[in-house]
Write a structure and sequence with these properties.
This protein is of the alpha+beta class. The chain is 52% helix and 11% strand.
Length: 199
Amino acid sequence: MPDDLTIYYDYTCPYSYRAFRWLQHLKQSGRVFELQWKTFSLKEANRDDDAPSVFDLKPVDSVSILALELAKATQAAGGEMFERYHGVIFDAMHGDGKKLAADAVRTMAQDAGLEMPAFQAEQQAGTWLQRVAGDHREGVGRWNVFGTPTLVFDDQAAVYLKFTRVPQSPSDAAEVFDALRCLARCHPELVEIKQPPAS
């Protein structure tokens, strides 16, 4: 039976990018798992208490939110469109170290196969912002997500993690996955492990 893994992410987060690369290595190990990506806005999570929710703003002037809206639209379109968009935008933001403008992000989604006129009409109606908000609020309400990436194993246990670097081989990726899953599911009393910096 395949493992079920949900990951809350934000494209602007370098730790989300490293988790994305780690999971690519995990697939190469031959490990079978069901993976679901859910949006979590760090812009919303880190806003001042007296500031309005980014989910209530119209329009939202934020490339990070636009990138997440496009992710929800490509997921809804089905097929491999999301996978194409997801990899390209993560690589552009972190692998290439680019600061992306809104037009560049839209072009990436269009190149992945998204119909932009339909997306823009639905965006104006608030469809995709509400989908982003839905994932975000579910993460907070159900799993107490506060940052990215947060992984949920088999719909039972959630962990937040940071990689300083991506596990280098498929076997390393599988070893990390097994250790994290075991700690998350079998030891809920353990809430933090942090290695001090190497001297």
